[in-house]
Design brief:
Chain lengths: 307, 135
């Protein structure tokens, strides 16, 4: 049974197919309005993530399917001590596909190894969040009309930021990608990501702590939030959280065709005033995420022979 | 130094000097019901110094554990006092319940029944679930 735990589970060809499907959905949504008629998606969210859950639910509804949700982990069988493996086995009897979010790394893989229906990882702790990367890829494709020959600046928490690791891995498979890694020293991209992803693909990168200095050379600025939940130490979080704030003033130094992306939610790392700048694409990412989730649900259900 | 030869059992040979005690621990050989001899820092033409473990019992040892601790070690199976089988080990591609993931954010930290699985990557062993590198 095919599941998607990491975006690297998908080949470049499959990514292109998903993007093509998403583009087709955008062009002609009616064509897909009954594609998942009478099929059910379970959204198992063991930690709160309103936007990702709603995106999956909206995706399934727009495909003509139904959604069953676990209300809250605290009031579910998980609170009674049921394992992820048992939950996956049980829920497989009710639905055709599962989207799961869990605070522990590797939980989605455990679910996929035990479920009899496809599992989509909707985020497993700080590990993987493949559908966010799919949203990012569609956004880059739609805004830049290419996935190659791009200079991407990742800014903020590059240590714990799974979206950064995941997008860097996905982009490393395309030609002519350069990275600028903008972060405080304490939140630098981990060396294993450089060694396992960037260096084998010969991706040129430079590290800096200066956002303004880097802006002029970027095609894409990917901002990230410093996430309180990834810190064991509150003091470290408070010290680092406001290190980078993108403002209208700083945007004046950015190229006219640069785009600003952010996986959201933001706290204050992008000033609200930047939202009206045509280069701000983070709310488009949200919409693109829904289309890519639709494309992925369709793909996995087709491969499973369910539709 | 004389160690009696064994009739039926296993000799783990060519252990890198200093690694025998870790093997004894991980193979659960430090128990009362079997006779073992741990020979440390003996001269070896090939290795300079090496350790040897002789186990005077017909038990199955986990080759993955040996391969993880010391992939260059060899196994000699002794039956009726003669060498019946000789095995090279090598580095196993996958380790199950040999080492434990120390990442408190890993799913294995909360699901007690889950096996701890490490897979061999370019830079060493990493947890199957969270990709944390084995210490």
């Amino acid at each position: 049974m095919r599941s998607v735990i990491d975006v690297m589970d998908l080949s470049v060809k499959e990514l292109e197919e998903l993007i093509a499907t998403a583009e087709d959905i955008i062009a002609d949504p009616d064509k897909y309005a009954e594609a998942c008629h009478r099929k059910k998606l379970a959204t198992l969210f063991f930690e709160p993530s309103t936007r990702t859950r709603m995106s999956f639910e909206a995706a399934m509804y727009e495909l003509g399917g139904h959604v069953i949700s676990m209300s809250e982990a605290s009031s579910s069988s998980a609170a009674k001590g049921e394992s992820v493996a048992d939950t996956a086995k049980t829920v497989s009897n009710y639905v055709d596909i599962i989207a799961m979010r869990h605070p522990k790394e590797g939980a989605a893989l455990v679910a996929a190894n035990n479920a009899s229906v496809p599992v989509i990882n909707a985020g497993d702790g700080g590990h993987c969040h493949p559908t966010q990367t799919l949203a990012d890829l569609l956004t880059i494709w739609r805004e830049k009309k290419r996935l190659s020959n791009l200079t991407i600046g990742f800014c903020g928490d590059l240590k714990f930021g799974r979206t950064v690791h995941s997008l860097a891995g996905a982009m490393a498979r395309y030609e002519g990608i350069k990275l600028v890694l903008i972060s405080p020293v304490e939140l630098k991209l981990p060396s294993y990501v450089k060694r396992n992803i960037l260096e084998p693909a010969n991706i040129p990168y430079r590290q800096t702590t200066d956002l303004e200095d880097a802006l002029g050379e970027l095609d894409i600025l990917y901002m990230t939030r410093v996430q309180r939940e990834r810190f064991f130490n509150e003091e470290d979080y408070l010290r680092l959280k406001d290190r980078y704030i993108l403002t209208e003033e700083k945007m004046k130094k950015a190229p006219e065709d640069m785009i600003v992306m952010h996986p959201l939610p933001r706290v204050n790392e992008i000033s609200v005033a930047v939202d009206k700048d045509p280069r701000a694409c983070y709310f488009k990412q949200v919409l693109n995420g829904k289309y890519m989730r639709m494309a992925l649900i369709l793909k996995l259900l087709k491969e499973a022979g369910t539709i | 130094m004389n160690i009696d030869s064994i009739q039926n059992g296993i000799v783990i040979d060519h252990i890198t000097a200093g690694k025998s005690m870790k093997l004894v621990h991980l193979l659960n050989l430090d128990r009362d019901d079997i006779s073992i001899a741990i020979i440390r820092n003996v001269h070896s033409q090939k290795m300079g110094k090496k350790d040897i473990i002789k186990i005077d019992a017909e038990l199955s040892v986990d080759l993955d554990v040996i391969g993880y601790v010391d992939p260059e070690a060899t196994i000699n199976v002794i039956r009726d006092g003669v060498l019946a089988e000789k095995k090279a080990i090598g580095r196993p591609k996958r380790l199950t319940n040999v080492i434990h993931c120390k990442n408190p954010r890993c799913i294995t930290s909360v699901e007690q029944e889950l096996q701890h699985v490490f897979v061999l990557r370019d830079d060493g062993y990493r947890c199957l679930y969270c990709e944390t590198k084995a210490e």
